[in-house]
Design goal:
heterodimer, A: alpha+beta, 5-stranded antiparallel β-sheet, 25% strand, elongated, B: alpha/beta, Peroxisomal Thiolase, Chain A, domain 1, 3 domains, 11-stranded mixed β-sheet, globular
């Protein structure tokens, strides 16, 4: 053992020269190193409750113990406060479009999606954040922030423990929610209203 | 230099977290560490974490875990794709710079969803070793063979290190492998896992997480009856390519220990994050540990090795011995990379 670890090993201090037989060989210009690793995804406690409930046509959120805000899908935590959210809340399958995007290009591997299609943040009645869903049953040019929607479910005999049970969201025909109280504005509008009452 | 101390620690570890996400794991741990000293996130000046996307199989996985912290309103925060001990080092530097007096450091690892021995191969160079996909145990076995054949260690000594861990872990609720009955003879009778390494030579893989609160100067004295003052902390690195290294040694560990002042005084306890008995043996020598220093009294990393957290857990274990007045001067060690390529040494004292 060398006494001084700051002195590099002998292998690092010599001159580097190629052996004779490698003098004229074609230089290596690239190397392919494929990587493949497999994982078993674990949804965890909160998401398991959420996914299991879908089999019964139920949408579950979780309520913040700090200020009662309802999160869907539930993650087991109020991310604003780092507080655990053990209490589930059953939510209706109605809400409004908080924001949306019209996609006119196909996605590889999703031949089932007919273009153009609308992906939207669906803000369920009683929830304080939105979650992603498809909006259909309406011309794409008619979709708007604040539009009321309800879930269109798969037939009961096709229900599984998956959010894919909801085929898409369709307009209810009810009057729109004002844009100032729709989507991410909803929480702030609710807080302001609570403040006025208080 | 400012006086900076570990004032609170919390950790959890089990064999496999099959029903818990990283976020769900860390919420109670982080709240316990902060809550024990009466702090909320609003009182924390800097937050730093350590974890690996290769364990989660997901890019930017650490961003999800920030949900466990409570990052609203926005916090001053950083992340290292390393063991949490290096996150602690970053937080220590931040506290040295000044402007903040408290820091939250946490790390976690859940290797059970994948194959850790294969995931670890991704840390090899992509040209020579990577394409061979050697698994972690086979690589460690090469080192063990070199050590045995060169006389750097004996099989008997390796078995004794395994027994020290197995016996010590019997009183440790966070250990995932322990045995009160294990003897060198019983360990030597085990069928090798990757010859010459036996199962008890290889750390028992675990899932878990750890959180630590740091505080500077009088703030530390306010928060904690007996802070674990960081008297020296240093980390060093050896070459990445094992072909240019003497695999019976870890010069970076020796250098880190020297710069952290490990041998300046008697050490009551040392907590080492070695994933193999061979490497625990190397560390004992490189860190200059002498008789009278209790090494991995609770089984250490061999009794439960949470990837990305094993090092910060050792620092937490060492600090707790100061908090509990079981020790006056302790050493916490963390390692990263193949064959103890990187080493961090943290020396802590009570007042």
């Amino acid at each position: 053992m060398s006494a001084d670890p700051s002195i590099p090993p002998a292998a690092l201090s010599g001159e580097v020269s190629l052996p004779e037989q490698l003098a004229d060989v074609e230089p290596v210009r690239s190397v392919r190193t494929p990587i493949r690793l497999e994982y078993d995804f674990i949804p965890g406690s909160a998401s398991s409750g959420y996914l299991n409930a879908f089999a019964d046509r139920k949408i579950l959120g979780q309520r913040s113990p700090v200020d009662g805000a309802v999160f869907v899908p539930p993650r087991g935590v109020d991310p604003r406060h780092g507080a655990a959210t053990p209490d589930y809340v059953e939510l209706p399958d109605t809400g409004h479009v908080g924001g949306f995007c019209v996609t006119r290009l196909p996605i590889p591997g999703r031949d089932d999606l007919e273009i153009p299609y609308v992906s939207a943040w669906i803000h369920l009645d009683g929830a304080d954040i939105g979650f992603l869903g498809l909006v259909a049953g309406i011309d794409t040019s008619e979709v708007r922030m604040g539009m009321r929607v309800r879930a269109v479910w798969k037939p009961d005999d096709e229900l599984g423990r998956t959010a894919e049970n909801i085929l898409y969201w369709e307009p209810t025909g009810e009057p729109d929610i004002p844009v100032t109280a729709a989507g991410t504005n909803a929480w702030h509008a609710k807080q302001a209203a609570a403040g006025e009452q208080g | 230099m400012r006086d900076i101390a570990v004032v609170s620690v919390a950790q959890h570890q089990e064999k496999a977290l099959t029903h818990t996400t990283e976020v769900e794991l860390m919420v109670p741990i982080i709240n316990e560490a902060r809550g024990a000293v009466g702090l909320t996130q609003d009182d924390i000046g800097f937050t730093c974490s350590g974890s690996s996307d290769f364990l989660a199989g997901q890019a930017f996985s650490f961003v999800h875990t920030l949900d466990a912290v409570g990052a609203v309103p926005p916090i001053s925060e950083s992340h290292v794709e390393m063991d949490g001990a290096w996150a602690l080092y970053e937080a220590w530097v931040k506290l040295q710079i000044g402007g903040v007096d408290t820091a939250l450091v946490y790390s976690y690892g859940k290797s059970s969803p994948g194959s850790l021995r294969d995931v670890l191969s991704t840390q090899l160079d992509p040209y020579y070793l990577g394409p061979l996909w050697p698994d972690a145990f086979s690589l460690a076995a090469l080192q063990a063979r070199i050590m045995l054949e060169s006389g750097a260690v004996s099989e008997q000594r390796l078995a004794e290190i395994a027994v020290r861990s197995l016996n010590g872990a019997t009183n440790n609720p966070l250990a995932v492998r322990s045995s009160a009955e294990a003897t060198a003879e019983s360990v030597l009778a085990e069928v090798p896992l990757a010859d010459p390494l036996r199962p008890s030579d290889c750390a028992a893989s675990a899932d878990g997480g750890v959180a630590v609160v740091l505080a500077a100067g009088d703030r530390a004295r306010e928060l904690c009856e007996r802070p674990a003052w960081i008297r020296g902390i240093d980390h060093r690195i050896d070459p990445h390519q094992p072909g240019v290294r003497d695999l019976t040694r870890a010069p970076s560990a020796q250098m880190a220990a020297a710069r952290a002042g490990a041998s300046a005084d008697r050490l009551d306890a040392a907590e080492l994050a070695a994933p193999f008995t061979t490497q625990e043996h190397i560390l004992e020598i490189e860190l200059g540990l002498r008789n009278g220093t209790a090494i991995n009294a609770n089984g250490g990393a061999l009794a439960g090795h949470t990837m990305m957290a094993a090092g910060l857990m050792r620092i937490a274990d060492a600090a707790r011995q100061i908090h509990d007045e079981r020790a006056d001067r302790v050493l916490g060690h963390a390692a990263s990379g193949l064959y103890l390529q990187q080493n961090l040494v943290c020396v802590m004292e009570g007042e």
